[in-house]
Amino acid sequence: MTANSDPKTLASFINCLSLLESNTYLLYKDLADKVEAPLVRSFLLQIAIDSHKHSIALKGVAESIAKPDGNIKECAKKIGESWRIVETLLKDVKGKKKIPSGDFSKLAEKLAVLESVLGEEYYMFVQLKTLELMMKEINQIYSIDLGSVKKIFLNIIRDEETHRELLEEIKTLVTPETKLDTAPVVKYQNPDAWSRPLPGTS
User: Fold this and answer.
1) Phi, psi for 108 (deg, rounded to 5)
2) How far apart are CA 134 and CA 116, in angstroms?
3) Of 2, 7, 68, 173, which sits most exposed with the smallest number of CB within 10 A?
4) Using CA atoms, how far apart are residues 76 and 110, in angstroms rounded to an integer?
5) Per-residue pLDDT tens for 103-113?
6) Residue 182 binned pLDDT confidence (cut-offs 50, 70, 90)
7) DSSP states of 14-79 as a string?
8) How many CA atoms lie within 13 A of 110 on its CB side?
9) Angle, nearest 10°, between helix axes 146-174 and 104-127?
């Protein structure tokens, strides 16, 4: 976003964020449908519901400023990394019928990266002086309060923090078995070594 952006450009960018959140909702919903552990499923659904709420709120903000152009192809360029991550994960998940708990640890790490990138995206957006200047301008025409808009973004940023915490919980839920299975292998890989005399003592 640049300082000379017009209301339509701002509306278009916020609309792209709304579409990103809609895709994020689809990703988490699809994941929740394919995992076996009930608690993991409930955490994923919680994130999905939040993402859906974000999408609705952002769409409302965008349409309050100006009618967005709705060019989805342009959204990939405007949003960048987080758009690419969501698209890639959506394709990966669609190709699976079920996701075993053991496979979920790496996936949870990728999702945590996504949530970090999303949080950063919103934080940077809130910090933009462009937003402040433009909202003052837009406020005179459309009576949209900057405080209300900032509040929506700050609430989303808080939710992204919660999502990262939930994903950490998911990782601990799906990894204990792996740890139990691999620990003895490492410890007892060469049991004969315990009975060998120390160097210089024989």
Assistant:
1) -60, -35
2) 27
3) 2
4) 19
5) 788 888 889 99
6) very low
7) HHHHHHHHHHHHHHHHHHHHHB--HHHHHHHHHHHHHHHHHHHHHHHHHHHHS-----HHHHHHHH
8) 19
9) 160
More confident: 162 or 130? 162
**146-174 and 129-142 helices, crossing angle to 10°:** 130
Structure tokens at 81: 């990394």
Two tokens, residue 19? 């579409």
Cα–Cα distance measured from residue 113 to residue 120, given in angstroms and rounded to the nearest whole number: 11
What is the distance between the alpha carbons of residues 42 and 166, in angstroms, rounded to a whole number?
Answer: 10
Rounded Cα distance between 27 and 38, Å, is 17
**15 and 67 in contact (C-beta within 8 Å)?**
no
152 contacts 194 by C-beta, under 8 angstroms: no
CA separation for the pair 67, 12 (Å, rounded): 8
Q: Classify burial at 25, counting beta carbons within 10 Å of its beta carbon; exposed 0-12, middle 13-18, buried 19 or more.
A: buried
* pLDDT digits 0-9 by tens, 49-93: 999 999 999 998 888 877 877 677 889 888 888 899 999 999 988
Task: Tell me if 33 sits within 8 A of 98, measured CB to CB.
Answer: no
